[in-house]
Amino acid sequence: MKMLVLLLLYGLLGSSLVSAKTYYHNFVIKETKCTRLCATKNILTVNEQFPGPTLYAQRGDTIIVKVFNKANTNITIHWHGVDQPRNPWSDGPEYITQCPIRPGTDFTYNIILSEEEGTLWWHAHSDWDRATVHGAIFIYPKIGSSLPYPKPDKEIPIILGEWWKSDVAEVLAESLLTGGDPNISDAYTINGQPGDLYNCSKKDTFKVMVEYGKTYLLRLINAAINNELFFGIAGHKLRVVGTDGGYLKPFDTDYVMITPGQTMDLLLFPNQPFNSSSKTQYYIATKPYASAVNVLYDTSSATAILQYKNFKPNKLSPSKSPSFPTLPDDNDTNSATDFTSKLKSLASQEHPASVPKEIDERIIITVSMNLLPCNNTTPCLGPQSGRLAASLNNISFQEPGIDVLDAYYNQIPNVYGEEFPQEPPFYYNFTGDNLPRVYLLPKLATEVRVVEYNKSVEVVFQGTSLLASENHPLHLHGFRFYVVGRGFGNFDKDKDPQSYNLVDPPLENTVGVPKNGWAAVRFRASNPGVWFMHCHLDRHASWGMDTVFIVKNGEKPEEQMLPPPKNMPKC
Asked: Cα–Cα–Cα angle for 265, 512, 514, nearest 5°?
């Protein structure tokens, strides 16, 4: 209903000036019985929905969400891709910007929208609770502004996820106990349903009803815990028009590669003719992009069905089984790279690309898998009888006992250090083969990087081949950044910047660092506060592939962090 009201306002008041609005919602976290793959278990949900409710707003609006925790576990919620200007208090990551919402308590989030426009999402940011606690955020242009692409007749959320028959919390706990890789998921899902290729799933397969000649906006979200995904629709091209709450130069494609954390806005034009030999149903499908070698992953595919309306099968034109889209092979890095290379900002007068041309600071960060020695208290199931870990610049982030934001704001000592390095502690052939074992051992610490207000920052993420090389989706809270360059091999600070795109690079909040390669991003540090940065493959984040940026206050009042709300949860 709220979506309908917003669309009507947009259509009827296109030339009017309407001030920003505030929307209010209640989220009730509770356990709900859910049946998938022939088995029933309890899952965490918001308002007993899986996926959770969609939030609707316009650019510049505010959304107030009161979260009631009626589950038996701690919880926090993150508003993924929302910059939250000057307001890290409502950003959500557990023990970074808040203590968790304890069972039986509540907390109110103040979600401040600024320049975001398009599709974002929200999800739990405590342990792996986001496996079932997640939903979409649709952000429309301000009244008086228009979409930079054909106005769709209908919009459809498509949320990709993963499903375990086991309790997800137990999957994580077992992995952390043994030091081994977590058990892989049992299925992928599209809008919470695995699709008819899995047992006991056919009747609940998600269906998209379309009409020939109309235009549909698919709001695609990768909410999977540990897998990047290919996505496509049989017999239909997709037109990519946006990502991560911003607009792109449109291009048509047969498939999409989307990392966990990312969103894509896709236009669909149903154009298949009707005749006695034509199909009326087409599979919508997703399957993994798994770039690591010798790392187990869920090899299955989830499906939904695209169904043309107003077609009645008869004896001369019997209904045919859906056709499957042609998607790249699971390990096809070339196809993943080819898709990603096509993402370019719209860079129009109304939606300019404000790329920092000069930088004040370059930070080079190695992104690595690591090994810790066995603690001898339990059998260790990681490689070489060790315990799996992960790091940024060889520091495996250790979660503090109280949140970093509270410690920073109230100057509480001995919670974190400020020694996250500007460059790797040692240089070697990062993407080479048979690297010395000494590089596998990380430092365990809670170190942050402090940045002066309004500085122009470049971060180069350098992938490594330690233990297992793969594509890493790195997400920065509090900012969207321009992805100015990518490449394979080791970053060359003298040569590679010469090939940067400083004209129309994509504006993203989650960047895929190529397998055995690097990615360079730029942003202006104009959002004071404490902001988490981490890999969005949750197993890597759980092993320490995280850090924190603290952006200091500016001199003017409007350049300073907002004061904390009175009801912040206590640790």
From this structure: 135
